[in-house]
Design goal:
Number of strands: 0
Number of helices: 3
Strand content: under 5%
Order of helices and strands: HHH
Number of domains: 1
Largest sheet: none
Distance between the termini: 65 Å
Shape: flat
Helix content: over 70%
Length: about 90
């Protein structure tokens, strides 16, 4: 008896790969759902942590966050100049 050729075993191999992808997809979906549902549970259903004093950020951190917020606001409201610059650099 001769062993099956590659063309005869290819459908079986493809089916096994397909099944393993389905199992991997389902497993990662379950892990992701657990993670995000846990976050929702902590936010809405668990008791809050005891009151902690507000964190004090250093001046450099506040400056960096302020500049970042200003840039996001500026680029969100006026994206045209940045898009024009990108288009000129591409061509």
């Amino acid at each position: 008896m001769t062993p099956p050729s590659t063309s005869q075993t290819a459908p079986v191999t493809q089916l096994a790969r397909s099944e393993s992808r389905k199992v991997m997809t389902a497993a990662t979906s379950v892990v992701g759902a657990y993670y995000y549902l846990r976050v929702i549970k902590l936010m809405y259903f668990d008791e809050p942590a005891p009151h902690l004093p507000p964190a004090q950020a250093a001046a450099g951190v506040r400056l960096a966050l302020g500049l970042n917020a200003a840039a996001v606001l500026l680029l969100g409201l006026l994206p045209g100049p940045l898009l024009d610059l990108c288009a000129r650099l591409i061509h």
